[in-house]
Amino acid sequence: MAVSDAVSRAPAAASPDRRRLHVSAPPERFFGYYPGTVAVITSAHGADRNVMSAGWHAALSAEPPLYGVALGRTRYTHGLVLAAGGFAVHFLPFEQARVIAAVGCVSRHGGVDKFDRFGLATAPGAVLPLPILQDAYLAYECRVSAVHATGDHDWVVGEVVALHHRPEAFDEGRMQDAQRVAGTVYYGRSRYEALGRGDRVDFDPDAFREVAPGD
What angle do CA 33, 37, 42 make, to 5 degrees? Predict the structure, then answer.
């Protein structure tokens, strides 16, 4: 074996000035996936309806347009979305950060209608019988196309069948314009920031709760 090969295959020696990150394997606690945007999810089936906040969500495809959201199996919204076969994904401006926090801290399991409790204005979906939040600057109507088990959540994939938006929230290139309508970034632990502006606000989850937490 050539000396150069031996050197290249040898493990890198740990040294105080090389290893600067704390390591826990397996992880002591899973964290670090925030900050990020929080989507607000709505669904309805018959006379039943619900709204919740979801931190884990993503665009998946442009053609066809697909959007996914991770829903815990014990959450009320999980069963409602599967029964309805559809859900709506909303993005609310920073001025609505209190609503984002509130619908994530109060549960439908206790019988509370969060639309009534927090005074949420809605309009019917254009394609699906879903409540569309009128204070959102962007919303997707999604028809469920697949459900994948992912650990303690299900990854629910929806085909976007309609898009709702506030034109003033976007520039001519359809880029979200934070100077016109600031989006909301979530840091975890009920802390929110105005995207592109830096304003921050913290909420006490107990201030919203009259029933057990969870959606």
Answer: 115
